[in-house]
Amino acid sequence: MRTTVKGKNLDVLDTDRRYAEQKVQRLARLLDDRSEVIVEFSVEHNRSADQTHIAELTLLLHGKPVRAEARAATFHAATDIAIDKGEELAVEHKERPRTRARSEQAKEIQRSMAVGATESDEGNGHKSVVKVKRFAIQPMFEEDAVAEMEELGHSFFLFVNAENERLAVLYRRRDGDYGMIEPTIGGAYTPGRK
Description:
The chain is an alpha/beta fold. Helix content is 34%, strand content 26%.
């Protein structure tokens, strides 16, 4: 994520620049390395005193600009408001394409699970894999995985953990809480280990 802090017809003080750069780091979890964040400060003197300082935040997400603007008595206060607005917009932007894909993916998974659960090789009592389902998965945080699993009504959910970019399986425990399985390559398997 690249960050640029600049002034529109003014020189930005080092304290304001550092403050903005520090606050922009809140957005790092929502953005990738190709994203760019531009914070532009300006002053508008014909406003009331508590709205003279303007912070305009522009996020370039996958080449598309997302903008948030805030006015306050200081650049620090305007930066805080703009970052909050920018964070909301980034989450909405990130969720939009996934929401549509999730509902289609959820329907397909439910269909495949319903078919797979009823089919087995009954001739010799041996059960076999009768269907293989492949689907695209998006990195997400644990909270999002819990919400998705609940929305689907499943007792488990396979996802890529956005925190460590590793495959994980979220499951509902008998006590109502959730458990998570994070496979590792190598190492010994220990049955019943919690």
